[in-house]
Amino acid sequence: MTAETSTAPASTAPAVAAPAPTANAPSASTPQPAAAPGQDSAAQPAKKLTGAELKAKKQAEKAARRAQAIQAKTEKAAAAPGGAVPPGGAAQAGGANKGGAKPKGKPEAGGGKPAARRPSGVGAKPTVVIPAPLKEKDPRDLIPECFSHLPMAKRIPLSQADKDVHPVVLAVGQQMATFTLRDNIRRLEATLNAFKKVLESYEAPPSSAFSRHFVPHVLNPQIEYLTECRPMCFAMGNAIRLLKARISKLDPDTSDEEAIKTLCESIEGFIQERIYYAEVIIARNAADMIIQGDHILTYGGARLVGKALEQAWADGKTFEVAILDDPCDRTGQAMAKSLRQQGIRVSYYPQLGGVSCHLQHATKVMIGAEAVFANGSLYGPAGTSDVALAAQAANLPVIALCETINFDRERVATDSGMYNEIDPERCTEESFRLLFDTTRDKFLNVVVTEYETITGDAPATAILAILRKQEDPN
């Protein structure tokens, strides 16, 4: 009985101690394979992590997933045809790894090794770099600061025009910007006819009065577009003010159809009275001032001067004409050809040089005007002032022809730098050219208009009196 009691513990002890030498002291003859990470937990019980360690582990896993997603997106963009690798891709991936760095000594589950960068060897696709479009140089940057207040015509692409601009107005604006429409009265006529088309195609929104909706939402976008293409001439500004005043006087109870019909009739009447009739009357009044055997000297191709000379020739008067022209803008060539075809003897000089010599044979000087300011100064094509000064020095009468729609009762001018335009075709780093100049009233003998007494002429300083008589004949 004593022997059996001592044998049982001896056989039990080796059974408990047997795993110890297998795990900690392997045999030298039998090499043991390294334990895999997944088998580690099976071989020994898992260690319980603290809250801080669990949080760090989750952050590391999240950072690894984010880095892999960014790397996949970068490789996909590089593999696309014509695609460029985003410059911030690598930096973003690096920043993600940096921000999600795990504490030292803690293994990263799921593999936290940063993704390898795409090699730039033979298999890598080249990065396509699209150069940025060059910014078009603004010609106004070449203008000296003392003339920076002067406007300049510019051609606006149709894609940049306001969506509310009517197609007819778009066409007129392009013609003005390219100087296809050059004469101020022809620009006025084209503008009014375009506004008439805008009125005919207008449909007022529900519960909106015509007089309150048409001007701010329809008419003003047309005006702004035309002004951007080329600054408005004085005739256009006066006509637009009259049109807006006519719209404001419409009865709010008037139907849209009736209001549109009334305004279209007003525009037609304005064109007939202030453009066509005015041209005929001024041509007749100026022709009456030409006598038999006169030698008329003029500058450029002024439309009213040409009409007056044709009228005088049709009246049976014999005279000669000398045309001085602007070397930068040969508008006088067409008028010289037209007068010669009618049998008038014409001498054409392509530049202003020698104007004093040409004035020795002249008896009268006739010039056209773009506008007349309230102080009587005349606004005309560049070079008009030179001819007027030379004519006064030669004691020759200077006759200016201008419609009253071109009169400005509010503004005054004493020199060419106050109101003018810069020629967009002749604006370089070395020089630029002004399209107009200003002639003081003391160099003008008479201004012929369509509103005056029997002779139709008045001093240049009498434009305010002429306008008052035009508004109130009594």
Rounded Rg: 45 Å
The description of the largest β-sheet is:
7 strands, mixed
The proportion of residues in beta strands is: 5-15%
Number of strands: 12
| Helical residue percent band | 40-55%
Read across the widest sheet, the strand sequence of neighbours is 3-2-1-4-7-11-12
The coarse overall form would be elongated
Q: Write down the CATH topology of the domain at 281-471.
A: Rossmann fold
Family: Belongs to the eIF-2B alpha/beta/delta subunits family.
InterPro entries: IF-2B-related (IPR000649), IF_2B-like_C (IPR042529), NagB/RpiA_transferase-like (IPR037171)
Keywords: Cytoplasm, Initiation factor, Protein biosynthesis
GO molecular function, one term: translation initiation factor activity
Task: Please describe the structure with a list of short key phrases separated by commas or semicolons.
translation initiation factor activity; Four Helix Bundle (Hemerythrin (Met), subunit A); 3-stranded antiparallel β-sheet; alpha/beta; 15 helices; IF-2B-related; NagB/RpiA_transferase-like; IF_2B-like_C; Rossmann fold
